[in-house]
Amino acid sequence: MSLFLMPSLGADMEAGTLVEQTMKPGDEVKRGDVIGAVETQKGVIEIEVFEDGILDSWLVEIGQTVPVGAPMAQILKPGETAAPAPAAPAPAPEPEPVPEPVVAAPTPAAPPPPAPAPATKAEPGTRARITPAARRLAAEKGIDLSQLPHDPNHVIGRAEVTAMADGVAVPVAAPTPKPSAESDMRSAIAAAMSRSKREIPHYYLSQTLDLTAVDAFLKSANADRAPDDRLLHGAIYGRAVAKALKKYPEFNGHNVDGQFTPNPSVHLGVAINIRSVGLVAPALFDAQDQSLDDLMAALRDLVGRVREGRFRARELSDATITLSSLGDRGVDQLYGVIYPPQVAIIGIGTPRLQPVVQDGAVTARLATTLTLSADHRVSDGHRGALFLRAIDKNLQKPEAL
User: How far apart are CA 268 and CA 391, in angstroms?
Assistant: First the structure.
């Protein structure tokens, strides 16, 4: 028997709220299966199991908020019998109030109960807050989510979608005041970045990259491709970084409690903006083993799912290095703040034609600025410079990526 614990979905997460149980007691589960969804400051995120077995029981009710590391479910291995479930986390008891003398008084008439709040539909330009599994079910049944009555502060689950598909009225609770998703995410980002700047001794390096070879390669590779199949700069950058990390592994891994552990796999975090609410940097797993086309497909899929609010816990927690680009925003240089427990972040600016002296003559070349923010506890400027040079070298031969 083992316990499934509330996962940590980032250095800034302290607790999460269970909003959906996609599997029920008695169901067989396999490693990687999604068993529920948790709401955090970063949105509604699917949570996965990490072992095979049978879901014996849930220890947390839907709507309950529990801290990171608290038991959420009990999983049995085949052939095991259930053991007594541990007590679910509960808030600390409040001290008993001191009794005061009671003076008898006439009992006032009870006020009439408030009328139930009318169901509201999503306003144009807004999206209902919905779990990933419920969103998929709505797509399968052809349900327009904007027509689903909802409380803007309530997360819609599979039950509501199923009810609407069956023509059953969906009850709606009266809206309760709650901080906006934007303020929640901004607070989470601020907490993580404040911690990073307090605890991590950053150093910064930059280097100008000649992208002429990359530009020529992309034009050739995309000449006969449909728009949805074309390679983009992001895949080229990702492969160049992943290949360079084979020689400089001190930039790829996690530093926890002062102990750095390099990761043999490159789980490349990609900074993705979420429609002015904030950003997340979920991972492209095993980038070192993927071809350019595979990495481009994975990147396109990841960006699409994040923009729809569909990403998984492991994608947020397991990134080993982050790549951030503001090239489409006209930014020349980007000096990132390391996201703990990672130890490095790569920034890439906007490609521009720049004057370059080549063979004694001034010529225009497509170039950009590559930056590195790294943890001085794990590496130094000498190794950082070599790492940037290795990325540059890879980009001069994109056909070899």
Answer: 14
Q: For residues 211 and 196, give the distance between their C-alpha atoms in angstroms, rounded to a whole number.
A: 32
**Beta-strand runs (E) in 143-264:** 202-210, 253-256, 259-262
Residue 243 confidence class, pLDDT cut points 50, 70, 90: very high
Nearest alpha-carbon partner for 192 in 71, 36, 334, 40: 40
Q: Tell me, what CATH number does 51's domain have?
A: 2.40.50.100
Indicate the Cα dihedral angle 232, 238, 239, 241, nearest 10°.
140
Given 53, 76, 99, which residue is the final one in a domain?
76
- Report the SS3 class of residue 44: strand
Tell me the residue range of the domain where 189 lies: 183-400
- How far is the CA of 36 from the CAs of 316, 334, 372, 383, in angstroms? 16, 37, 37, 42
Q: Where are the beta strands (DSSP E) in 168-270?
A: 202-210, 253-256, 259-262, 268-270
Residues 175, 154: Cα–Cα separation, whole Å: 8
What are the distances in angstroms from CA 28 to CA 1, 46, 56, 67? 14, 18, 9, 26
Residue 113 has which token pair? 């109960």
d(Cα 236, Cα 74) in Å, to the nearest integer?
A: 43
Residue 84, burial from CB neighbour count under 10 angstroms (0-12, 13-18, 19+):
exposed
Q: 49, 76, 103: which is the final residue of a domain?
A: 76
Task: Read off the pLDDT of residues 261-301 as tens digits, 9 standing for 90 and up.
Answer: 999 999 999 998 876 567 889 999 999 999 999 999 999 99
Give pTM, 2 decimals: 0.69
- At residue 255, φ and ψ (nearest 5 deg) are -110, 110
Domain count of the fold of the chain: 2
CA 179, 180, 184, 186 dihedral sign is negative
| Listed residue (208, 128, 129, 257) closest to 370, CA to CA | 208
Q: What is the pLDDT of residue 87?
A: 56
Secondary-structure percent of the chain, ordered helix, strand, coil, rounded to 5: 30, 25, 45
